[in-house]
């Protein structure tokens, strides 16, 4: 499908720019991908996202949009093929609710559990496990959060399906284990989906990146 | 307009449940309001919002929705009269972007500036002022974030239009001052809009509530 001048400013291992790539690919929208050097951000990125100065930024017909979840909804409203949001208002509200839960509850609790200081880790593990139990109940009996196919919540949850496992390997700790069997089944289906599989960053290179990054932030804290 | 069994679980001085009330009133949707005792939450609230156990919760035809911004979008999609979201996908993305900015950047920076410990206050004031400058630019030349009428971003920004002034009076500090003239003009128009004016909680009672609450959290920290 013609992207009518669609550009994505991203970073190869960012789960947030990857969300946008996944949505564009699921939709079949052609786009030009521009890799950012986060140590030396391009003038275009700073111009297009002056508030946060972060990837991802989607530029469509010269107009820029930032924030991955905002971009996902824009993509779904602009290119109608292969919807990622449900059509029913209540189901849409539920999708937004769970995406928000993943962003505001799960991501910070994983961070505390895997990267937190001594005083935070125990609380972080406890919170993470509570959050994962909640997500298991949501997924019970379904292939994906989106039902039979990958939708908005699954795309947002790429952090859990793939990145958490990279982080875990990088820090040699485990909090999302096989005991969460419903989530692990979902994760297996997700990362083996043809579009997802060809788009995710390579595992070994990604783990090496996070290992170096976490070591650096530990050294400078 | 018939609300077809619309119930709102709220708390009289919560800016979050107030967002939902404002949207329902702007839309002209009839609803039953149920005041929650936050020290002794009702079984219904805990049943309807088991994840966060918080107000607001909207129940429509027996189905519950939590999280104020999620509820606002549901309301706009369910009752089409007097839209609060723009119709154009790019404008909708911008509305979601600014609502997220207010929720994730402005609210935490106000909290640090007005309620933070000694080490946080200075940084909090600096961040707040930067954020307010950004919002001034967005509002420049417009009556409301929504253009000529109150929309999604204005409703989310009730925290800035009214609550920040309550907090400031309660703690006897000022960070949002008249130097932010564009925001102050907007705030004056906003709080004097007929629907907003009749719905906001009474000022003196609200200030007294926050004065007591902040004193209590200071004593217990």
TrEMBL record, chains A, B:
Could you give one GO CC term from the UniProt record?
cytoplasm
Task: Write down the Pfam families for this protein, in alphabetical order.
Answer: GST_C, GST_N
Q: Domain named GST C-terminal: which ranges? A: 88-210
- The GST N-terminal domain extends over 4-83
Q: What is its EC number?
A: 2.5.1.18
Reactions catalysed according to its record: RX + glutathione = an S-substituted glutathione + a halide anion + H(+)
Q: Name one GO molecular function term.
A: glutathione transferase activity
List this protein's GO terms for biological process. glutathione metabolic process
Q: Which UniProt keywords apply?
A: Transferase
The kind of enzyme this is, by top-level EC class, is transferase
Q: Which family does it belong to?
A: Belongs to the GST superfamily.
This one is known as: glutathione transferase
